[in-house]
C-alpha cells in the first residue's frame, strides 16, 4: 500500500527554511536533520529545493504523487522534487521562456535519481499523439542506456555518474514534448583501464558478463570470459554493487537500445567491441632488441598471440596490423617531396600505454556514438521552448585526485558561481539598481577560483595547454610554473615537491583539494597514434570505422574558424595539410606540427557553452546533500552535512530570501500576466498598454481594496514590481485562472454560436449545391445516353419520330416508378443482395411460344433483366407481381432488331431460349442496356439489325419476319400487326423516318 503524503498541518520542523524562527546555521542544520531522520528528505528555501539522499525507497513517487503535485503551487503542498518539475513546466507554458533545472551536490548525493524523477514527472503530466508518446518513451529509455555506459560503482556511490549530462526537452506550442537533445561532458574514460580498489568499471561490462539474456552461442560469438579473468576488471577486486542486478539491468539496456533505434547488428558490434576492450587489458608484452646497420633499439612483441587473434577477430581487423600498431609507431619527417616515414619500435612500457590509450579511445567513442544515436532519434528541426535538466558529476575529493577530479571540480565551481550570481549577487545588485530598500547580505564569491582555472593567458588550463606544446614539457615542469605564477593567489597553495610525486592545492568552495600532478599532461593531450586510427578505419566493422571517422563540427570550429562551414573544402584541405593525420578519415588526431585540441580545451569550451545555455534560461535549483559516507539509511553525519550546507551557500541563500522579495517581474510581463483579474485593467487601463507601470499601480490598488494584498507587501522599482510574500501571489494566480476560465467560456459560447450559425448556413447552401450538382450530373448522364442512342441506331434502323423527339429525362429509365416501391426493392434484394439497384422498369408486349402477345414488364438492374407478370390484384402480403424469368447479362449473346420503324427486339440467350418483345421505350431500353452491359462485362453489347430474325422459343426454332406496309388498320394503342403461321410470325409496321435521321436537340456530352 502506497504511503500517503503528510498533511501540511502535521509537520516535522519547517517545510520552508524561510519560516525558521531562529535564523542561524545550526538551526538550519538541526531542521534538516530532524526532518531527514523522520523520512522527510525534501526541504525548501523559497524556490530552492534541498534534497537529502535517504539510501532507501520511501514510497513517495509514482502516479499517485504525480497527480497530487500536478498544477499545485509550492506553497500549497510539502516540498518535493515533483513540485520543482511542475513549477518549471508551468513557467514554460505561461512565460513561453526556456527553463533549466540545475541539480548540484557532491558525488553520492542523489543527483542522478533526482533527474530521473523530473523526467518521469514531465512524461506523466504531458499528453499527446503517438509521436509525442514516442518522444517521451525515448527520453525515459535514454536513462538506463546512458547509465549502463556512463555510470560506475565508486567508493561513495554505487551508481555514480562518471560523465556530465545536460538533457534538453523541447516542447511544442501545446506543451507536449516533441524532441530533445543530450550533451555529454568529460566521460571518465581512465576508469576503463583501472579503478581504485573497491570500485568497479562501467556497469555495461558487468552487465554483458552477467549473461542476462545471452545464449551460449552469443557468449561464444563475443568470446566472453568470467569477470575475474579480465585484468581491467579484477585489479579493483570488486565485482558486485549493492542494489544493482546486472543481469536485469542488461535486459533494460538492450530494450533501451532498441527503443532509440540501435539495430540488432549495431548492438552485436557494440558487444564485440566491449569484449575486445576487456581482452586488450589481458595483452602483455615481452622486450626484444631490434638491430640495424647503425644502432640497436629496444622493442617488444605481444606475448599472448591467441588473445591478440581474438581481439582482431572481434574488431574485424588484421591481427598482424593490430600487433604492429601496438608495438611500434610510424614517424613522418620532412615536408613536401622530402617527406620520409619510418617505423619506430616501442618499449614494453610504451606499448602498455598505447594499449590502454586505444582501449580508452574505443570506449569513449562508443559512448559518444550512443549519445549521437539518442539525439538522432529525438531530433526535431523546428526550434521551440525547452526545459533543460543538468545532471553533472558532483564535487570530488579523493585520496588521489588527478586530472579528472580537477575538471569535475572546475565545472562544479562554475555551477556554484551561477548559483551565487543568480540567487545572491544578482538579486542584491538588482535591489540596489531598482531603488528598493534593502539590507545587504555578505556572501563568499567563488569567481576568483573559477578565474584561477580558466582565465587567459595565465590560468591553470592555459598553462597546461602551453606545457603540452613543449617537447620537453612534463608534469613536474608544469607544477613549477603553477607554483611560480599562483603562489600569491588566495585559492592556490603549493606543496613541496617530493621524490615520489608532486601536488598542488586549490581552495575550492567545497574545501581544499590536493591534486596529484602526475598524468596531467598525458591526460590533457589525450592523443592516439595515427597507426591505431588507421587500424580502426581499416576494420570491416562499420561501427568501428564510423566512430573513428566522425568529426564533431564544434571541434573543427574551435580549432580553426575558417572551418565553420563543412562545405569549405579549401579550408579543410589547409587543416589537413597542416599536420592532421588520417586525412581520409578526417580524424582530429594531430601530429606535432599542429597545435592539438586538448582535453582541457575541449572541456572548457563545453562548460562555457553550458553556462551560456543556463544563463539564457530561467533557473530552478535542486541542492543535493549526502548525509553520510557509509551509505546507511537515514543516518546523519553532523560534520559532513554542515560542511555541505556551508559550501552550498544555503545559509546565505536563506538570509537573502528572508530579507528579500519572493517575486520580482518587469512591469510589462507582470501586466501581461495579471491584467485580466481586475475590471479597471481589463481590457485596457488608464494610460494604455504603453504604460505598464501605471497599469501595475491601478491593479495593486484594486487588490488592496479587495484585501488580497497589503501596501507593505510590495514595492515599485524603476523597471520591476517586487512582492515580498507568496500568499497574495497564490490568490492572484487563482483569480487569474478563474478569469481565464470565464473568458474561455465566453469565447467558447460566442464561437459555438457563430460556428453553429455558420454551419447551418453552409449546410443549407451545401444541400442546394448538392441537389443542383446531382441534377446536373443526372442530366449530363442522360444527355450522354441520348447521344449514345444516336450512335447505336443511326444508319441501322428507320427511326420513329417519337424516338427522335425524346428528351434527356426519358433516359432516367424507371418508367414504372418502382425504385421507391418496397415490394419491388425487397424482391430484388432477395435476388441480388442488399446492393441491388433498379436501373430501368418498362412495360412490354411479349410474344409467347404460341405467337400470342402478352402484357408484361421488364425490370433491369446492374446485372440482370427480370421478366415479371402482374397479379390481377395485390395479395394480402403486399405482393403484386411474380418474377417469371431472370436473364443475366452474362447469358445474353446479342440483341436483334429489324431495320424498320418497329419497337421489337430479341434477346438471344443460347443457354436457355430467346426472349422477343415490343415496347414503345425501345430506344431507351437498348441504350441503357448497352451501357450497363459494357460496365458489367467490360465488352460491348452486340446489336444485329436485320428484317428476318431467327430465334428460339420454348417450342423450338422459329423466326420473325418484319414487313413495311403503307397502311395498317390499328387500334389506338397499337403500332404493329402480328400474324403467325407455319411456325413463324410476321410483323407488319408503318414506314418511319430515314435511317440517317438525327435526334433533335443533341448537346455536347460535357
Automatic annotation (TrEMBL):
SUPFAM superfamilies with a match to the protein in the record: P-loop containing nucleoside triphosphate hydrolases
GO biological process: actin filament organization; aggregation involved in sorocarp development; cell motility; chemotaxis to cAMP; endosomal transport; lateral pseudopodium retraction; pinocytosis
GO MF entry, a single one: calmodulin binding
Keyword Protein transport: no
Coiled coil: none
Subunit structure comment from the entry: Myosin I heavy chain is single-headed. Dimer of a heavy and a light chain. Inability to self-assemble into filaments.
Gene Ontology cellular component list: cell leading edge; cell-cell junction; cytosol; myosin complex; plasma membrane; pseudopodium
CDD domains: IQCD, MYSc_Myo1
Protein name stated in the entry: Myosin IA heavy chain
This protein's UniProt keywords: Actin-binding, ATP-binding, Motor protein, Myosin, Nucleotide-binding, Repeat
Domain Myosin motor: 12-737
Recorded name of the encoding gene: myoA
Lineage: superkingdom: Eukaryota
Pfam family, one: IQ
Claim: Glycoprotein is one of the keywords in the record: no
Family recorded in the similarity comment: Belongs to the TRAFAC class myosin-kinesin ATPase superfamily. Myosin family.
Residues covered by the TH1 domain: 799-989
Binding-site residues, ATP: 105-112
UniProt-annotated stretches for the region Actin-binding: 607-629
Amino acid at each position: 500500500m502506497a504511503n500517503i503524503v503528510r498533511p501540511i498541518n502535521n509537520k516535522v520542523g519547517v517545510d520552508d527554511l524561510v519560516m525558521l524562527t531562529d535564523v542561524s546555521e545550526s538551526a538550519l542544520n538541526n531542521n534538516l536533520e530532524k526532518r531527514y531522520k523522520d523520512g522527510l528528505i525534501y526541504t525548501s528555501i523559497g524556490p530552492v529545493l534541498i534534497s537529502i539522499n535517504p539510501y532507501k525507497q520511501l514510497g513517495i513517487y509514482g502516479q499517485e504523487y504525480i497527480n497530487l503535485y500536478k498544477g499545485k503551487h509550492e506553497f500549497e503542498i510539502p516540498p518535493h522534487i515533483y513540485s520543482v518539475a511542475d513549477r518549471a513546466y508551468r513557467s514554460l507554458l505561461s512565460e513561453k521562456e526556456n527553463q533549466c533545472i540545475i541539480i548540484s551536490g557532491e558525488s553520492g548525493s542523489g543527483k542522478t535519481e533526482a533527474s530521473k524523477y523530473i523526467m518521469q514527472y514531465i512524461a506523466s503530466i504531458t499528453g499527446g499523439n503517438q509521436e509525442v508518446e514516442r518522444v517521451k518513451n525515448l527520453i525515459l529509455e535514454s536513462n538506463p542506456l546512458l547509465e549502463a555506459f556512463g555510470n560506475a560503482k565508486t567508493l561513495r556511490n554505487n551508481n555514480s555518474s562518471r560523465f556530465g549530462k545536460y538533457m534538453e526537452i523541447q516542447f511544442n506550442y501545446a506543451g507536449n514534448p516533441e524532441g530533445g537533445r543530450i550533451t555529454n561532458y568529460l566521460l571518465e574514460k581512465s576508469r576503463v583501464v583501472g579503478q581504485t580498489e573497491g570500485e568497479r568499471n562501467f556497469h555495461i561490462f558487468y552487465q554483458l558478463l552477467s549473461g542476462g539474456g545471452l545464449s551460449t552461442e552469443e557468449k561464444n560469438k563475443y568470446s566472453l570470459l568470467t569477470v575475474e579473468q579480465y585484468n581491467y576488471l579484477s585489479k579493483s577486486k570488486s565485482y558486485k554493487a549493492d542494489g544493482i542486478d546486472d543481469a536485469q539491468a542488461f535486459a533494460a539496456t538492450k530494450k533501451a537500445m532498441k527503443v532509440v533505434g540501435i539495430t540488432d547488428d549495431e548492438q552485436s558490434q557494440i558487444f564485440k567491441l566491449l569484449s575486445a576492450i576487456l581482452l586488450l587489458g589481458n595483452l602483455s608484452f615481452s622486450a626484444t632488441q631490434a638491430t640495424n646497420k647503425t644502432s640497436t633499439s629496444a622493442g617488444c612483441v605481444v606475448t599472448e598471440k591467441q588473445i591478440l587473434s581474438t581481439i582482431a577477430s572481434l574488431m574485424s581487423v588484421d591481427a598482424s596490423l593490430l600487433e604492429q600498431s601496438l608495438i611500434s609507431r610510424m614517424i613522418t619527417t620532412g615536408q613536401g617531396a622530402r617527406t620520409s616515414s619510418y617505423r619506430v619500435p616501442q618499449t614494453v612500457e610504451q606499448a602498455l600505454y598505447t594499449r590502454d590509450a586505444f582501449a580508452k579511445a574505443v570506449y569513449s567513442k562508443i559512448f559518444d556514438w550512443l549519445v549521437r544515436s539518442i539525439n538522432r532519434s529525438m531530433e526535431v528541426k523546428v526550434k521551440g521552448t525547452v526545459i533543460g535538466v543538468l545532471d553533472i558529476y558532483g564535487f570530488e575529493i579523493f585520496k588521489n585526485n588527478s586530472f579528472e577530479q580537477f575538471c569535475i571540480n572546475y565545472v562544479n565551481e562554475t555551477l556554484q558561481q551561477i548559483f551565487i550570481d543568480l540567487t545572491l549577487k544578482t538579486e542584491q545588485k538588482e535591489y540596489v539598481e531598482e531603488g528598493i530598500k534593502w539590507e545587504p547580505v555578505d556572501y563568499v564569491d567563488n569567481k576568483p577560483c573559477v578565474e584561477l582555472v580558466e582565465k587567459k593567458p595565465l590560468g591553470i588550463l592555459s598553462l597546461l595547454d602551453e606545457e603540452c606544446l613543449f617537447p620537453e614539457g612534463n608534469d613536474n615542469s608544469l607544477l613549477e610554473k603553477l607554483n611560480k605564477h599562483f603562489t600569491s593567489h588566495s585559492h592556490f597553495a603549493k606543496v613541496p615537491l617530493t621524490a615520489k610525486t608532486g601536488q598542488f592545492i586549490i581552495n575550492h568552495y567545497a574545501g581544499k583539494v590536493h591534486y596529484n600532478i602526475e598524468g596531467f599532461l598525458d591526460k590533457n593531450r589525450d592523443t592516439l597514434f595515427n597507426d591505431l586510427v588507421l587500424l580502426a578505419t581499416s576494420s570491416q566493422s562499420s561501427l568501428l570505422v564510423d566512430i573513428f571517422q566522425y568529426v564533431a563540427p564544434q571541434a573543427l570550429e574551435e580549432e580553426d574558424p575558417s572551418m565553420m562551414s563543412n562545405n569549405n573544402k579549401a579550408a579543410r584541405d589547409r587543416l589537413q595539410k597542416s599536420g592532421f593525420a588520417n586525412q581520409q578519415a578526417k580524424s582530429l588526431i594531430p601530429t606535432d606540427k599542429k597545435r592539438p585540441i586538448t582535453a582541457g580545451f575541449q572541456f572548457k569550451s563545453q562548460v562555457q557553452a553550458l553556462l551560456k545555455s543556463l544563463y539564457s534560461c530561467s533557473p530552478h535549483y535542486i541542492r543535493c546533500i549526502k548525509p553520510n559516507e557509509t551509505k546507511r539509511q537515514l543516518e546523519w553525519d553532523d560534520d559532513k552535512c554542515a560542511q555541505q550546507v556551508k559550501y552550498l551557500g544555503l545559509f546565505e541563500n536563506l538570509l537573502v530570501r528572508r530579507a528579500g522579495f519572493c517575486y520580482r517581474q518587469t512591469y510589462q510581463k507582470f501586466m501581461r500576466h495579471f491584467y485580466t483579474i481586475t475590471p479597471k485593467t481589463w481590457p485596457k487601463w488608464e494610460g494604455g498598454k504603453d504604460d505598464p507601470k501605471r497599469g501595475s499601480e491601478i491593479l495593486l490598488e484594486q487588490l488592496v481594496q479587495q484585501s488580497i494584498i497589503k501596501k507593505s507587501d510590495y514595492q515599485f522599482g524603476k523597471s520591476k514590481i517586487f512582492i515580498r510574500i507568496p500568499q497574495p501571489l497564490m490568490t492572484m494566480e487563482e483569480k487569474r485562472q478563474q478569469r481565464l476560465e470565464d473568458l474561455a467560456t465566453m469565447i467558447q459560447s460566442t464561437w459555438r454560436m457563430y460556428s453553429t450559425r455558420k454551419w447551418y448556413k453552409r449546410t443549407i447552401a451545401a444541400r442546394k449545391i448538392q441537389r443542383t450538382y446531382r441534377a446536373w450530373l443526372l442530366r449530363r448522364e442522360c444527355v450522354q445516353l441520348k447521344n449514345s442512342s444516336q450512335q447505336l441506331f443511326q444508319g441501322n434502323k428507320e427511326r420513329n419520330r417519337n424516338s427522335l423527339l425524346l428528351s434527356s429525362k426519358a433516359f432516367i429509365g424507371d418508367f414504372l416508378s418502382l425504385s421507391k416501391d418496397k415490394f419491388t426493392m425487397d424482391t430484388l434484394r432477395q435476388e441480388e443482395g442488399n446492393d441491388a439497384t433498379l436501373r430501368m422498369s418498362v412495360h412490354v408486349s411479349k410474344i409467347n411460344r404460341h405467337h400470342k402477345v402478352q402484357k408484361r414488364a421488364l425490370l433491369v438492374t446492374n446485372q440482370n433483366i427480370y421478366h415479371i407478370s402482374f397479379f390481377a390484384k395485390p395479395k394480402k402480403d403486399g405482393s403484386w407481381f411474380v418474377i417469371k424469368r431472370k436473364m443475366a447479362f452474362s447469358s445474353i449473346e446479342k440483341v436483334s432488331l429489324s431495320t424498320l420503324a418497329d419497337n421489337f427486339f430479341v434477346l438471344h440467350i443460347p443457354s436457355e431460349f430467346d426472349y422477343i418483345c415490343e415496347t414503345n421505350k425501345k430506344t431507351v431500353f437498348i441504350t441503357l442496356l448497352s451501357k450497363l452491359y459494357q460496365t458489367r462485362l467490360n465488352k460491348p453489347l452486340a446489336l444485329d439489325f436485320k428484317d428476318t430474325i431467327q430465334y428460339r422459343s420454348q417450342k423450338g426454332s422459329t423466326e420473325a419476319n418484319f414487313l413495311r406496309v403503307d397502311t395498317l388498320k390499328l387500334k389506338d394503342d397499337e403500332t404493329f400487326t402480328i400474324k403467325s403461321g407455319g411456325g413463324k410470325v410476321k410483323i407488319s409496321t408503318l414506314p418511319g423516318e430515314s435511317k440517317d435521321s438525327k435526334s433533335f436537340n443533341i448537346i455536347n456530352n460535357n
